[in-house]
């Protein structure tokens, strides 16, 4: 009992390092065994534990001192438990973009992820050991003695690291060359690295001056008809779940009755909203985009507004991620504004009073952006009203690994069915205003979703390892008769199967609105010849 009440700093560090290595890296070892089957690689896989323990011990030895040891260890134990749960249950990797999503989320999204299983997991593997650390009395010793102990520990664990690598040098060399993606699953080092990258990106945003681009933008077109475009941002929608794209279930019964164009090969800029959404509206390409650059530069909506178009943003998701900072933004997450709310406020409620708003501005060009809740997981069953629960049975929990594949897919497909209804209502609104305007609807999702394929759920994996389910997104275009003539709809249809990406979005919006500027690139405009 005395051991648990009082111990040296080094002993506590080594104990916590061993605990986190063992309990926080279930997913890492699962992935490692898939690559290196135990039957042929038992000793090599076992060496991972020794190396991870030694490396983490060295790291903690360098940063944990008399006044920092308990706060650091308590934070790491709780954070590692949460991260380990996310990896084990959903296959989620906590990178810098996921950190941004966590920081920028709202309470509704947080509650969607909470569960009794999460609470028990974090209590047993995070809070309980953190309490033990908090209650442990650190032995007092002289500075000289502490320094000697610290040096001995550093030398010892460093030697262990070297010996392990030397003993399996061929294996570790092959690992470094061919399986570098395994590092994404190392807990806690990868999420600590991600936190540092996120903090650095915030400093990059803060210290860089705002750059105005597209200041030469002006409305320039041959026709004199005012334009009305509704841009709907989808959430977590997969291209392969739209029956317009060949899915066997009829998830688009309403859109199938409209003359829409479905772009079947659209890839997202990122795999989570925090990164992908601002990237979608940036003039920068995905390869050149970073928050430091993108958020400190006029986006395409700023440019269109500067040209004289009235631009508004209606929000029913987790926020505009900085895109609408210089626009008129209306929040439709509340029943005081959104007229269609039950267990949550529905996307179709963003169309409330929009007809009156448009008719009052019949003599203006307008771009209306609607940020939908769409198919946001893991609580897919909440994303649609009861009457849209067509595919049964459905998963009625946010613990997706407790549901069958059929139940998960049914709930998700019902959410796509509701999106189809929402888009059709927006098209009906545009039709009713086609007398005064050349109208168009453009729908593009921010990213896709994994529904249990290969044991992966939700989204947010690093782009280089993300499956196609998280990257391939639906993109739908509807044009009224006037806009069809202006844009040559037959030519656009010919491009519907071309390889496209979010890089095309900004330039397509500029083309739709008839805005001329030097930053416009016609080669990236889906509709330009």
Characterize the structure shown.
The protein is α/β, with parallel strands linked by helices and 529 residues long. The protein has two domains: 2-206, no CATH class; 225-524, Alkaline Phosphatase, subunit A, CATH 3.40.720. The protein is built from 20 helices and 16 strands. The protein has helices at residues 2-5, 9-23, 26-35, 38-63, 69-90, 96-104, 107-113, 116-135, 143-167, 169-178, 189-207, 273-280, 291-294, 300-306, 354-359, 405-432, 468-471, 481-487, 489-494, 505-513, and strands at residues 6-7, 137-138, 218-219, 226-234, 260-262, 266-267, 310-315, 328-331, 366-371, 437-445, 450-451, 457-458, 472-473, 475-479, 500-501, 515-516. The strands form five sheets. It has a seven-stranded mixed β-sheet with strand order 5-14-10-4-9-7-8, with helices on both faces. The protein has a three-stranded mixed β-sheet with strand order 13-6-15. Strands 1-2 form a two-stranded parallel sheet. Strand 11 and strand 12 form a beta hairpin. The radius of gyration is 26 Å and the shape is elongated.
